[in-house]
Design goal:
Length: 1059
């Protein structure tokens, strides 16, 4: 069969798509042949077969294994196609190929390793118990070749990452770690193999982290034993000097010098990463060694500066390289890792206390001749622009801006150096800035210092000052004036990067210098404006555009108004000279332009009525309509402008509409014509914003101008990003000016507005529109019902409500469910009895409409979001309860979650097999439960149950590795040292009964979550207290009270007692 497979494998690599597809289909047809996987394994093992075909065979085999080996694999297709005997043979062949079989092709061994890992994830340990002993035997064998050792370590790394349960890990942990330690410390082995052994050891901490909570004592004992041996090894490895660096010519080759260089760097890197991992999982265990680690790292970073500069600042060596196993092996990676570790260690209490003591002892020289000066000097040294960055940024300003705005994922020694100084600033406050002043005085006075050094110093200062501004940390006037001299020097230099950095740092200084810098800020703003138009460097131009965002708020208000038109003109000229529609890898320039234009307009939003500002903003947005960040900036800016202008009255808002509506409607037409969905979506959202923030009544002709386009969009589109804003726009038209709206008639069909809206709602409630798209239809339906009333709607009203109830019965998305429920909630506020009467006679798939709607309503009430929506819901539920309708009392709904405390986090597969179960309660009791919850939320001081309090960090424990040295005697109130406790107070324990919604609400600031962060609402609180006073006096309430949980009863009693 091998001969049949070889041409097919070759065809899978054909540049012709049809040939590839045909070969892939033929290979799929061979899946059922028992010889198929055996033949692929045999091809992969043959040295005589070309490497590309061996790799192809392993790739096909791996795909086959995923699909047909075991039901436990995620990609399993439903039928096991390998018998046990063949499985045994395949496992043996692949493991030998990945480890002991000698081959010159590491790519083949790596591919075999991936296949072994895939099988192991299904079979280990039950069907493949000999796998781990086999690997450990190879690794422990002193005679094992480097190739076999490498293959065994690679398989073991994958196995540790994916294959161990808790019990399995504890059974083999000591043997495993001892084996890895033996390799890591064996100086006769290649450094890169020792690095791989350390990487496997580091991977063990992921498993230890998972079992830490359940096995604290055992884990602590194990780690104490382990680190007693590994710590001296870490220290000696980090202390060891780097070997001879390879020359440019040698580096690209596989000789002894470059191999040793890369190997030692890889080993040091893995040690540094492992120390960082231990610090994350067991911080107390390295606290005592933190001063030693700090000194060693500082010393090494000081010693390798010259090599780093030769490689990357003065030279153009290739950086950011990894070996075939994904291990970083270049000097820039080592510098980055050690700088990162240094900024972590500097917060360790023993290190911090010693450094604080040295500063105090230094007295007046603390900022001129202490460790602070040396650390700042080190940070500046590594913050210099590399040759590679210089070339890239000069070609593409987007890359420069992405670093400047910290949106890049490219973490480098430069950015890490900035973070190191920011950490010092968080601790030492303005002392760090004073240290920078002292250091820069010497640097700028030294005529031999390069522009890169000076730019780096300004970059570090820029990072420090921007962090100060984020926490409103201002600096004294004398310090600001001292730092300003370096900025003045920079903006006059001929080097583009230094000039650009000068302007950017001026903006950062303006934000933290207060009123004393206002005149200087005005001067820099005028200089920046001039540079945007006249500077020959585009890098300087975009830097000046960016810094306007910092300078505009810092300039005296008497000056900025007169400059507003000048700024808009400068931005207009820049945009006219650049094709913003030209494809780029990122849109950072467009984002910067939009943000600067937004800030300029908001100085006095009326400027949009008499300038091209709004046209510029729309032009920027349309050129990058697919960029979410850009669209969000423009949309939010437009909302603010509309709201501000609407406050000036009807004339101003009408002029705005006259100015923007042609552009918006034209964009809708162009987007439809060119199939640019993103442009159409943007235009629809801008139209939504214009209607939402508008005035009552709307300008004459507004509805006539936009409804035909909105109607077409809502009846034709399936795009959720378009349907949502278009639906909202129609609702706001209806809400703001019902008379103008109801008078509109569709010019194409002749249908009136009421009929058109009903058709739109019917379509959005239908099965062809997804929940995510129809999420606003409930609000539109509710608005229509309220505004039009039963008189106008006539027989359409019950049809509309039945359609809402029908869609509610199948709705899954929380926001969509809320939208539909609010239709009935708002009607309940008008006439609760009519709502109950109507739902009781509706049949939804054999179930009572009342039962379906109340079930969904009460199950989802606690997840409602939005102040008005929550309030409407509370009032409606109270009215339903007070109605005391027996039909409502007969409805049974989902009650409380039945807690199944297994002590383990429930996985997705476990959740599918054992879904959450709930009690069943009557609808009135559920209403009381919901309103008790809302009463607590309305106070703004909602009591937290024990589990939620613990999840928010209300409890602490630090049993593992606690050290007496962890105490921090600083008086600065800095809480960073808490990160050196093993269970920081901010840890969220996911094994507690906290829902995903609660976690999300907490992460978003929690406007209406159960974390007690909702704003106090006295009106709602008073209503609910009055409701419960009245309800408690009614017959049957004591039975309701008895049905509440203990915490609910306590909450009601407590709130009643203090009200």
């Amino acid at each position: 069969m091998e001969q049949e497979l070889l041409p097919l494998l070759a065809d899978t690599q054909s540049p012709t798509a049809d040939t590839r597809k045909r070969a892939e289909l033929q290979l799929l047809r061979l899946y059922a042949n028992e010889a198929f996987p055996l033949s692929l394994a045999a091809i992969a093992s043959h040295e005589s077969v070309p490497t590309s075909l061996r790799q192809s065979a392993l790739s096909v085999l791996r795909t086959f294994i995923a699909a047909a080996w075991s039901p436990t694999l995620d990609e399993f297709k439903g039928q096991v196609l390998v018998n046990d005997a063949n499985k045994t043979q395949i496992r043996r062949v692949l493991l030998e190929l990945a480890t002991t079989i000698e081959t010159s092709e590491r790519k083949v061994k790596n591919s075999a390793s991936y296949a072994v890992s895939k099988i192991a994830s299904a079979d280990f340990p039950e069907q493949w118990p000999e796998l781990l002993p086999s690997l450990l035997h190879i690794i422990n064998d002193p005679a094992a070749s480097a190739s076999a050792l490498h293959g065994a370590l690679k398989v073991l790394l994958d196995l540790v990452d994916t294959g161990f349960s808790e019990d399995q890990f504890f059974n083999i942990a000591r043997d495993l770690v001892a084996t890895l330690f033996a390799v890591a410390t064996n100086e006769s082995r290649k450094p890169i193999l020792r690095a791989l052994a350390v990487a496997v050891f580091r991977s063990c901490f992921d498993t230890l982290e998972m079992v830490l909570e359940q096995h604290k004592s055992a884990v602590k004992q194990f780690m104490d034993e382990v680190l007693s041996g590994w710590t001296p090894f870490f220290i000696s490895t980090l202390k060891a000097p780097l070997p001879q660096a390879p020359s440019d010519e040698e580096e690209s080759k596989d000789g002894d010098i470059p191999s040793l260089w890369r190997g030692v760097i890889g080993l040091k890197l893995q040690v540094a990463k492992t120390i960082m991992k231990i610090r994350m999982v067991f911080p107390g265990l390295i606290t005592a060694q933190s001063p030693a680690y700090f000194d060693i790292i500082w010393t090494e970073l000081s010693n390798i500066q010259s090599a780093y500069h030769d490689f990357y600042i003065h030279g153009d060596r290739q950086g950011r390289l990894e070996d075939v196993d994904g291990l970083p092996i270049t000097l820039d990676f080592l510098v980055l890792e050690e700088l990162d570790l240094m900024q972590t260690l500097i917060k360790a209490p023993p290190v911090k206390n010693e450094l604080q003591k040295q500063l105090q002892n230094a007295g007046q020289t603390a900022v001129t001749a202490s460790w602070l000066t040396e650390v700042l000097k080190l940070a500046v040294s590594y913050a210099q622009i590399t040759t590679e960055e210089e070339g890239l940024w000069d070609i593409d300003t987007n890359l420069f801006l992405s670093e400047e705005t910290s949106v890049t994922a490219n973490y480098t020694p430069r950015t890490c150096s900035g973070d190191l100084v920011v950490k010092l600033g968080e601790w030492l406050k303005t002392t760090t800035a004073e240290g920078m002043l002292a250091y820069m005085n010497g640097l700028f006075a030294d005529t031999s210092s390069s522009w890169k050094f000076r730019e780096a110093a300004l970059y570090i200062l820029n990072q420090l000052l921007r962090d100060f501004s984020e926490v409103s940390q201002y600096i004294p006037a004398e310090l600001a004036n001292g730092l300003n001299q370096f900025i003045q020097h920079a903006v006059q230099r001929e080097e583009d990067f230094l000039r650009a950095r000068g302007y950017l740092t001026a903006g950062a200084l303006a934000k933290v210098s207060g009123n004393v810098f206002k005149q200087a800020a005005a001067s820099y703003l005028e200089g920046a404006l001039k540079a945007i138009s006249e500077d020959p460097s585009e890098l300087v131009q975009v830097s000046c555009i960016r810094v306007l965002q910092d300078l505009i708020p810092s300039v005296p208000s008497s000056s900025i108004g007169s400059l507003q038109i000048s700024i808009i003109s400068a931005l207009s000229a820049f945009i006219a000279a650049h094709d913003l529609r030209e494809p780029t890898d990122s849109d950072d320039l467009k984002v910067t332009l939009a943000e600067t234009l937004r800030d300029t307009i908001m100085v006095d939003p009326n400027v949009v009525l008499s300038s091209t500002a709004i046209d510029l903003l729309f032009s920027i947005a349309s050129s990058g309509a697919t960029n979410f960040q850009l669209v969000m900036i423009v949309t939010e800016a437009f909302e603010d402008m509309v709201e501000a202008i609407a406050q000036y009255g009807s004339d101003a808002y009408t002029r705005l509409c006259e100015k923007v509506l042609p552009s918006i409607t034209s964009a809708i037409d162009v987007g439809n014509l060119t199939q640019e969905n993103a442009l159409t979506n943007l235009a629809a959202d801008l139209l939504r914003a214009l209607a939402e923030r508008g005035i009552d009544p709307l300008p004459s002709g507004f509805v006539d101008g936009v409804m035909p386009k909105l109607t077409r969009l809502l009846l034709d589109s399936h795009d959720a990003e378009l349907i949502r804003p278009a639906t909202e726009a129609v609702r706001h038209l209806l809400s703001h000016d019902f008379n103008q709206f109801i008078g509109w008639q569709d010019p194409e069909t002749g249908k009136g507005a009421l009929e058109v809206v009903l058709i739109i709602i019917d379509r959005l409630l239908g099965p062809t529109v997804e929940d995510n798209a129809a999420v606003e239809v409930g609000q539109l339906a509710a608005e229509l019902v309220e505004k039009a009333g039963s008189e106008r709607l006539g027989p359409f009203l019950p049809q509309l409500l039945q359609a809402v109830a029908q869609r509610l019965s199948t709705a899954q998305q929380a926001q969509f469910i809320q939208s539909l429920i609010l239709v009935f909630a708002r009607l309940t506020l008008i006439s609760a009895q009519e709502v109950v009467d109507f739902l009781a006679q509706v049949d939804l798939g054999g179930q009572s409409g009342l039962s379906v709607v109340l079930g969904k309503w009460l199950e989802n009430s606690v997840n409602f979001a939005g102040y008005d929506e929550i309030k409407q819901n509370i009032l409606a539920l109270a009215k339903l309860y007070n109605l005391a309708d027996p039909r409502v009392a007969q409805v049974q709904v989902k009650g409380d979650l039945i807690i199944q405390d297994t002590g383990r986090i429930k996985t997705r597969s476990q959740a599918r097999r054992n879904p959450d179960q709930y009690t069943s309660v009557s609808a009135p009791l559920k209403i009381v439960k919901v309103l008790v919850e809302e009463l607590g939320a309305a106070t703004g001081t909602q009591s937290l149950d024990a589990a939620t309090a613990a999840a928010m960090g209300g409890t602490r424990s630090g049993d593992v590795g606690d050290d007496d040295d962890d105490d921090d005697d600083d008086d600065d109130g800095d809480d960073d040292d808490d990160e050196w406790e093993d269970m920081p107070g901010t840890t969220l324990d996911l094994s507690l009964g906290v829902t995903k919604q609660e976690l999300m609400a907490f992460g978003e600031g929690g406007s209406e979550g159960v974390f007690g962060v909702r704003q106090r609402d006295d009106e709602t609180q008073a209503f609910l207290l009055d409701f419960f006073r009245h309800a408690s006096s009614q017959p049957g309430f004591q039975e309701m009270f008895g049905g509440l949980s203990e915490s609910e009863r306590q909450k009601l009693q407590e709130l009643a007692r203090y009200s």
